[in-house]
Specification:
472 residues, mainly alpha, Serine Threonine Protein Phosphatase 5, Tetratricopeptide repeat, 26 helices, 75% helix, elongated
Length: 472
């Protein structure tokens, strides 16, 4: 008798949308931060020198371009120095992650100069980072009223729309940014990410490739193009792009994680473990990396390490249904069925349409001899996915063990209709026919299973020969 179940394989691939500093060019960023500190003190000439140095180190550092423009506007008396200092103090706080203080300084800058477009833009970025997307969009709107040619405000507004799941609006915004500034690599990458979220992988690849042509050191463009290749099943191209992203930015945790995901999918578990471990070192709160590393450990037979990783993922994200599901699978592997059922319960509580969790919980119930509960779970899985051949096969097993051979045969037959090469279903149906003493049908299914490559248990063949009087 063959029971079937699945280890969790569906993990979200992280799509990056970018604003602000994003290239992983640490030298340029350090210089830029130094310039911001000078400007916050009103030392604009020293700041200008630093921003110019930053642009020499990274010609695509849009933040340095914007801040140079602010200093130029101060010099031309278009912006009061006091407003500029508040703005730069806000940028300094933003670089430190102190968002509340950032907004206070930006507010002061706008009080001094109500038509300070870049401040509205940057305040919108902060609201976006805080998850306040409607407020962010309102800020970008104000920036664009003052300066309709502010390409970064368009792409930032596009990011806010994408964060709200409004990908068509996002694409429109990024397209407008590109029309204004055809060399704005970030707009291409962000538009590519919006296309990714719509499932338009070819358009995403095209946009990310354009961003890379403009800026060959744009790590996130390689990363997002890798995601698109992965979606198309082009795993080697995806690995190549993730590797390039890591070369440019060795601290790119998500690139390690996604590359690890592919290695795990390819059965290269040691590489998967290595990449996920690196991702965790860089971002200890990356729950997904623990789940993938756990799956790699599981496939290597290292069940205790797998459980440890799934448990850590759950500590980080108590609503991570996949982590509960995979830990349940691992407990099942260890024969700890009560713990497995408990984890499947939690996965289903978090996601009542988690089809595989019903099937695997059914397996655990079956192994504990709780056939009614198993049948109930398989039936629920079939309601959710009427084409789930495995659920029919497993329900057939439970019905067979209850002596309900007609129902079992019906389930195996349905599994075979859905998957004509489902070798276990042929074998299991053959066993049900044997118990019904319908030996010709039993032999027919045994022969079919053998033709599909299954080695039939010798004790079953012996029993079937003796019962049927046939030696075939």
């Amino acid at each position: 008798m063959k029971l079937s179940r699945r280890i969790g394989a569906t993990v979200l691939i992280v799509f990056f949308l970018t604003t602000g500093l994003c290239y992983g060019q640490s030298i340029a960023v350090e210089i830029f931060h130094r310039g911001v500190e000078y400007a916050a003190e009103g030392k604009f000439e020293e700041a200008k020198e630093e921003f110019e140095k930053a642009l020499k180190a990274d010609p695509f550092l849009e933040s340095a371009k914007d801040t140079l423009q602010v200093i130029e506007d101060v010099s031309d008396k278009k912006i009061e120095s006091k407003a500029a200092m508040h703005f730069f103090k806000g940028v300094a706080y933003s670089n430190q992650g102190q968002l509340a203080k950032t907004i206070i300084e930006y507010n002061k800058a706008i009080e001094v100069n109500p038509r300070f477009a870049i401040v509205y833009n940057e305040r919108g970025v902060i609201y976006g980072r805080k998850g306040q997307y409607d407020w962010a969009i309102s800020e970008f709107n104000e920036a664009l009223k003052i300066n309709p040619k502010h390409a970064m405000a368009y792409t930032n507004r596009g990011k806010a729309y994408a964060d709200k799941g409004q990908y068509d609006q996002a694409i429109s915004e990024h397209t407008k940014a590109i029309e204004i500034n055809p060399k704005l690599a970030m707009a291409y990458t962000n538009r590519g990410s919006a296309y990714l979220n719509k499932g338009f992988n070819d358009q995403a690849i095209s946009d990310c490739t354009k961003a890379i042509e403009i800026n060959p050191k744009f790590a996130i463009a390689y990363y997002n193009r890798g995601n698109a290749y992965l979606n198309k099943g082009l795993n080697d191209q995806a690995i190549s792009d993730y590797t390039k992203a890591i070369e440019i930015n060795p601290k790119f945790a998500f690139a390690y994680y996604n590359r690890g995901y592919i290695y795990a999918d390819k059965g290269q578990y040691d590489q998967a473990i290595s990449d996920c471990t690196k991702a965790i070192e860089l971002n200890p709160k990356l729950a997904m990396a623990y789940v993938i590393r756990g799956a790699a450990y599981l496939n290597k037979g290292l069940n205790d390490q797998a459980i440890s990783d799934y448990t850590k993922a759950i500590e980080i994200n108590p609503k991570f249904a996949l982590a509960y599901y995979n830990r349940g699978y691992t407990y099942d592997e260890k024969g700890q069925y009560d713990k497995a059922i408990s984890d499947y319960n939690k996965a289903i509580e978090l996601n009542p349409r988690y089809v595989d969790a019903y099937v695997n919980r059914g397996v655990a119930y079956y192994r504990e001899g709780q056939y009614e509960q198993a049948i109930s779970d398989y039936t629920k899985a079939i309601e959710l996915n009427p084409r789930y051949a495995m659920a029919y096969n497993n329900r057939g097993n439970a019905n067979k063990d209850k002596g309900q051979y007609e129902q079992a045969i019906s389930d195996y037959t349905k599994a075979i209709e859905l998957n004509p090469r489902y070798v276990d279903a042929y074998y299991n149906r053959g066993a049900a026919y044997y118990y019904k003493r319908e030996y010709d049908q039993a032999w027919e299914d045994v022969h079919k299973a053998q033709s599909l490559g299954l080695q039939i248990r010798p004790d079953f063949l012996k029993a079937l020969r003796e019962a049927s009087g046939r030696q075939e």
